[in-house]
Design a protein that fits this description.
- By secondary structure, the protein is of the alpha+beta class.
- It contains five helices and seven strands.
- Helix 1 runs antiparallel to helix 4 and helix 2 runs parallel beside helix 4.
- The relative contact order is 0.15.
């Protein structure tokens, strides 16, 4: 549907604009507080889904993580795609649900972002790497080719959980 495509494009543009807004509000023009940025982004995404977002609770468990703007932009775009997928596909119309977003640094010093929902889950045998959808393909490309990290679909009893990990030094600059 054309309206949905415009909404998704608008959310991607807002994700990039918001990181620059956060950057200019900070003291360091090369680093962003990823927690602050993602919280603002989640609010914008939820608002863009209107009525559907009123049925869904956003739950965050995020630590403050300072990162380079070169990481923040792909992180924001990646989280935008995963959260948008939750709003679009995780819940049946009128179903109450929860989307959880986690952010922290793991024991190996990698930045870890988790996006989970308690919705209907992925179909049996679903391969998110071969989904043929722009959102999931973008998320994989951003995680693996921009951030030089990993993205994994974590097995759960209910819903869907994606986990992204990357080292801050892993960013690949486009030439």
């Amino acid at each position: 549907n054309l309206l949905e495509i415009f909404k998704e494009t608008e959310n991607r543009i807002r994700a990039m604009a918001l990181v620059h807004e956060k950057l200019y509000q900070g003291k360091d023009l090369s680093r962003v507080d990823l927690k602050d940025y993602l919280e603002g982004l989640l609010h914008l995404i939820a608002r863009s889904y209107g009525d559907a977002s009123q049925e869904v609770t956003l739950d965050t468990h995020m630590d403050s993580v300072s990162t380079l703007i070169d990481h923040a932009i792909p992180c924001g775009l990646l989280v935008n795609e995963l959260i948008s997928n939750c709003f679009k596909h995780a819940f049946t119309p009128g179903q109450k649900g929860k989307i959880s977003v986690g952010l922290g640094i793991d024991d190996e010093g990698e930045i870890k972002i988790t996006v989970a929902d308690n919705g209907i889950g992925m179909p049996v045998g679903f391969d998110y790497r071969q989904a043929g959808t722009f959102g999931l393909e973008s998320a994989v490309a951003l995680a693996e080719h921009q951030l030089l990290g990993t993205i994994d679909l974590v097995p759960t009893d209910k819903g869907t959980t994606f986990q992204v990990r990357f080292k801050e030094t892993g960013y690949k600059e486009r030439i």
